[in-house]
Amino acid sequence: MSSEMTASGPADLPDGVTALLADEAVWAVPPADGLDRLLTELAVPTSTVIPLTPRAGERPAPAHRARWRTAVAAAAAAVAVFAAGLMLGNAGDDSGQAASPDADDPPVAEFSVRGTSAAPDAAADVEVFDRGAGYALILQTRGLAPAPDGSFYQGWLRSPAGEQVSVGTFHMRGGDDIVVLWSGVPLSGYPTLVVTRHDAGGSVAGEEVMVGALGT
Amino acid sequence: VTTEREFAARFRDGDDATLRDVYERYSGAVFTVAYSILRDPTRAADAAQATFVNAWRAAPRFDIDQPLGPWLYTIARRAAIDSYRRERRLESTDPDVLDGRAGSDGPSMERTWEAWQVRLAVDALPEDERQVVRLAWYEGFSHPEIAERLHVPVGTVKSRSHRAHRRLADALAHVRVENRSDASGVSDGAAVAGGTCDSEFDNEQ
């Protein structure tokens, strides 16, 4: 501890407090997915998975951009319904109103993620949209098997220093291949998207199934 | 403006959004308590999760006339101690070893309660001030070293440090911390500094 620090202010802090300020427990960071784990265990929704099960003859054109536009529009509708519910249940709270993706706005980033050895056939194209509520990540997945009952997938954005921020959880058991995740941090600082598979109530660390970074 | 009582009432009534708010507000302090006892990030994470799960499930019985924070603290400490005891049982079945450890459940309740309060005070600091305090006290850097790391003038570091310590002193003025080594063997029901948690402990039952 520096002598300058001692001379510049902490003299009015009790010794026990200064001892605690040097204790790693006071600075220990809870796992980035702690809230998602909690919400999953308590069965509280954590992210938006857009149901896009096509009706006969209505499947969007195979061009990925067209499908993503549909996903974004569906996300907008789902978020609008969710926001309406929030407004009914929490008058005066407008936090959900700016979250709707706009199907006409261009993505701010595009990249791909590929399956790891744990899911070698999996892949996804990712478009990122900047919205008032955060960044919407639209994943057009391929070859990613539905998570078995009792397990789930989780998306993460990872910084070059290894810090991870959860962008939500999903399971793929509905038969759809498009997933919408939300991030509160920009890809400029967290350029790598990682998808992990977890057992509900299991350990913090999951198994990486897909990884990709901006610029790939 | 939502009062603390309204906030606690929403939590008691099972409002999902308030659960998120409670997590954002207290997850650091809960993790600090768990980590203080377990000294293992994975087990501390599990204990922290158990804390919020138990609190959420016990929320309907929470007395909203009592402060929420100390109630969560008691749940966090119990979750961590439960984990600590489970681990000890797995470590050894030798009665002599277990007898030798009898009554030792890690840091005292006073110590973990102080850690809880220090963590809340640190979390309430502006990010630039918290960064300086961390680099100084935890990393052990001098002001010039901090200035170099943060690419700011030494004077800026000093002013941030001064403001941060003033805030910490104000926030922790009520904490009567003794300069002592960790005690051990404090029972779960022991009173904590100020006696706040003593009465709150019943809420968990």
Overview of this structure, please?
- The complex is a heterodimer of chains A (216) and B (205).
- The longest helix of chain A has 26 residues, at 64-89.
- In chain A, 23% of the residues lie in helices and 28% in strands.
- Chain A has an eight-stranded antiparallel beta sheet with strand order 5-4-7-8-1-2-3-6, with helices on one face.
- Chain A is α+β, with helices and mostly antiparallel strands.
- Chain B is mostly helical.
- Chain B is 70% helix and 0% strand.
- Chain B has helices at 4-12, 16-38, 41-58, 68-91, 95-101, 109-123, 127-138, 143-150, 154-171, 196-204.
- The longest helix of chain B is centred in the middle third of the chain and has 24 residues, at 68-91.
- The radius of gyration of chain B is 19 Å and the shape is globular.
- The two termini of chain B are 31 Å apart.
- In chain B, 41% of the residues are buried.
- Mean pLDDT of chain B is 81; it is low at 177-205.
- Chains A and B meet through helix 1, helix 2, helix 3 and helix 4 of A and helix 2, helix 3, helix 6, helix 7 and helix 8 of B.
Briefly characterize the structure.
The complex is a heterodimer of chains A (216) and B (205). Chain A has 216 residues and is of the alpha+beta class.
Which properties best describe this structure?
heterodimer, A: 216 residues, alpha+beta, eight-stranded antiparallel sheet, 23% helix, disordered N terminus, B: globular, disordered C terminus
Strand content of chain A: 25-35%
Number of E-type strands of chain A: 8
The largest pleated sheet of chain A is described as: 8 strands, antiparallel
**N-to-C span of chain B:** 31 Å
Uncertain runs of chain B = 177-205
User: What would you call the shape of chain B?
Assistant: globular
Overall structural class of chain A, as computed from helix and strand content, comes to: alpha+beta
Radius of gyration of chain A: 21 Å
What would you call the quaternary organization? heterodimer
Query: Helical proportion of chain A?
Result: 10-25%
Order of helices and strands of chain A: HHHHHEEEEEEEE
Distance between the termini of chain A: 44 Å
